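Quiz preparation item.
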């Protein structure tokens, strides 16, 4: 065996062990990504949040809910009140029963929560082969690995991913390396108004940013408040030091 062939085989073994050969049931380690909201003084890229909403509405909302989010919360991602009203009106929410006992719907209003795609858990089970898709309102608060792993999961399906009976779809970033969720993104599901190319990686990054914002929609305001309070306390500390020195300046040491 030539030295070159040996090195090639060794590199393949190292790659396989680092990406796929994880302990039983453990997902592969997701690569670190740069997120503007992850730094202690970071902030959400609201343009990415808005694009991520478009991805969610076009590719995720047919299976997943955001039950803890109200349409009025969308003002926090840079929309004006008329835009929030118009966006809410594109959704339908339950509105009681008609005279024949059938469920009625109406256009959503800003004070409504985002509706579930299913009438109940039984309907969700029936539509998804016995699996209830999780609510995504706080997914990045509870999902192990956070934004990095969610992004890796969305991009981690093979090019010809097919459901394996009794196991689901192979994805190295899923627990047990299989997930019941079929590949949600294929690229070009949405058309970005700002001209961003909607490939799988761009859509995955934007919808991850959107779900991070959904998990903490007031994070930027809290950080700005914290910075303001910190600066105010620093000002008081400097003022106190100056006054203390002036008061005791005539006292001999």
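Solution:
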């Amino acid at each position: 065996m030539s030295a070159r062939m040996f090195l090639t085989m060794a590199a393949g073994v190292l790659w396989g062990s680092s990406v796929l050969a994880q302990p039983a049931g453990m997902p592969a380690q997701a690569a670190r990504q740069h997120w503007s909201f992850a730094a202690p003084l970071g902030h959400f890229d609201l343009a990415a949040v808005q694009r991520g909403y478009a991805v969610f509405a076009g590719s995720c909302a047919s299976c997943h809910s955001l039950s803890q989010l109200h349409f009025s919360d969308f003002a926090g991602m840079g929309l004006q009140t008329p835009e929030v009203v118009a966006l809410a009106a594109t959704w339908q929410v339950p509105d009681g029963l008609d005279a024949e006992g059938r469920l009625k719907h109406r256009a959503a209003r800003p004070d409504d929560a985002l509706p579930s795609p299913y009438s109940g858990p039984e309907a969700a089970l029936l539509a998804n082969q016995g699996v209830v898709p999780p609510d995504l309102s706080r997914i990045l608060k509870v999902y192990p690995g956070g934004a990095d792993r969610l992004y890796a999961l969305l991009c981690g399906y093979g090019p010809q991913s097919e459901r394996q009976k009794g196991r689901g779809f192979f994805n190295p970033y899923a627990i047990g390396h299989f997930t019941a969720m079929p590949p949600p993104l294929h690229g070009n599901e949405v058309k970005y108004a700002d001209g961003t190319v909607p490939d799988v990686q761009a859509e995955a990054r934007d919808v991850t940013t959107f779900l991070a914002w959904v998990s903490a929609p007031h994070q930027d305001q809290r950080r700005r408040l914290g910075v303001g309070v910190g600066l105010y306390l620093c000002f008081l500390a400097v003022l106190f030091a100056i006054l203390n020195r002036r008061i005791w300046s005539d006292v001999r040491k």
